[in-house]
Amino acid sequence: MTGVTSITGAGVHRAAAPHIDLVSDILTAAFLHGDLAPWLIPDEIERRRVYRPYFRMLAAHAVEHGRVDVIGEDACALWYDLGDDPDLTIDDYDRRLAEITGPALPRFQQIDEAMHRYHPRGRPHAYLAFLAVLPGRQGTGLGTALLDHRHAELTREDRPAYLEATGPANSALYQRKGYQPLGPFPVAPDGPHLHPMWWTSH
Asked: From CA 43, how far away is CA 93, in angstroms rounded?
């Protein structure tokens, strides 16, 4: 991760603007071979080219308008506190997404539309947009540490949480942390499914 601003020290830290490249790198590495990746962009070289600026755009927005928790240079969680309306607006998003994704644009749009359609409304909640751990550090408890850190705050606030797991394995992991499945939905007629989940502190 040459050229990025690292976060040192044990435990969970809040990322700020200087850490956007770090967060982008974690997201890119964690999701490059994720459940949705082959459907989104079958060619790995092209996928890597698209993912870096795509995740940088999302990381920058989350740092400014949400919150990003980071553990070292290995793991991150992007959260938003949402009210009755789950809409998240990124400035000039349509143009920027088209410029970044090129021929893959329709599939990114399909995922966006499906996620927006199925997102719970009328229930203020914390939204976990992404939880990412570098491939070499997965299974070491970093994701759990990020969840536990935020869940402790949400418990004090008596605030529920929502996420979309990308596959059955991820869904099972979140169920172990208390998330309840809401029933999968397809991201497109020919696409994979996302697994929406809801968490409460009691």
From this structure: 24
